[in-house]
Amino acid sequence: MMSDDRVRSAPDALTGVDAGHRLSLPPGSANRRRADAARVSTHHSPPTSMAPSSLFPALALAAMVPLSPVPRSLHRAGGVSHEAGRYVPSRVAPEPNPFTDVLLRSVRGLARAVPGELPISVGYLSVQDDSSLESDAVDSAPRTKVYQVTPVFQIRFHQGWVMVDGAYSQKEAGTGGKFFPDRFDQVVTALRGARLVVITHEHGDHVGTILLPDVVRDVAPHTLLTKQQEQTLLFKPRPSAKLDAATARRFLVVDYERLLPIAPGVVLIRSPGHTPGSQMVYVKLASGREIILVGDVVWHMAGIELQRQKPDSTSQQMREDRAPLEQEVTWLKRIVQPAGIAIAVSHDGTELQNLASQGVLTAGLDTSAP
Ligand SMILES: [Zn+2]
Ligand SMILES: [Zn+2]
Predict the structure, then answer these.
(1) pLDDT digits over 44-93, tens only?
(2) Which among 9, 301, 330, 370 is least surrounded, fewest beta carbons within 10 Å?
(3) What tens digit of pLDDT does each residue of 159-200 get?
(4) Domain ranges of the chain
(5) Residues 169-201, buried b or exposed e (16+ Cβ, 10 A)?
(6) 271 alpha carbon, closest ligand
(7) Ligand 1: distance of its center to the CA of 178 in Å?
(8) CA of residue 312 to ligand 2 center, whole Å
């Protein structure tokens, strides 16, 4: 499943996986991922950003209003200042933790920022089922096999839908696990037919399908990337997740400080850490049910339950920033979960099944016309 993204175990480490879900793991995936890291291209100026105002009128306005009064760049300014005739290092104020109960209140409030009927369901479909050791996903976890998936999510409205993530093709998926070509075809159909597409982050197993040449032409004009996602795809790309400047100009690109409502009941939450462009997607359904799609903030629900990140060595290989991830994991456990909001971890197949059996998520995509 996550050729870009996961540390796989050696095949001989696997025993006794869920029937129907597990299969052989390819050798050398970790090597491939390391080779993917640190590939930096030098490009020309990035494409001009455009506000995605055509779909939801409130979006363009919201995109222009930073929710924090102090720009991030000022917090991180550093450098030197001129003081009493000599240069001395300026102090850099520590950035306050934005992941608080106030943030959750803001998220919930903004769920009604874009007028309209709330979505009726969140469906998911995995293009590749696989397994891995829990100890690879969660620091100090047991070497127990867990069911892992590579899904897309569909926020379904009565009229149309918004897609979250695009998964990847069989070629990008490699030979690990079981790939489902028919499901991949459904994903392409859902991406093409979506009113809007967003991605939780700029890794190949979440954006690869969207970047395929015969897909990007149709899907980019209604796909919203964040500025950080675009920058990674342009300037620090991985082989299965890279953009050239001309193609990047086809996308909607938005820069927001912390929160961005994109549709009735749907709010993006900027969550850098796993990647610079990571974001969570909050969804409030017409039923009142609330769900947060957290992408790869953690790879397994146990990471949130136990408040443990990925193993340190894995984080380093992934070039994660563990400080904000710590804040995000703590927020999900101590504030989001107690508020009764369901947490959907992208690659945790068992947890997604649990949420489907509870009626929180819907298994499969609904691409029927409204
Ligand atoms: Zn992933
Ligand atoms: Zn990832």
Answers:
(1) 333 334 444 444 444 444 444 444 443 444 333 333 344 445 555 556 67
(2) 370
(3) 999 999 999 999 999 988 999 999 999 999 999 999 999 999
(4) 11-38+96-363
(5) beebbbebbbbbeebbebbbebbebbebbbbbb
(6) 2
(7) 16
(8) 15
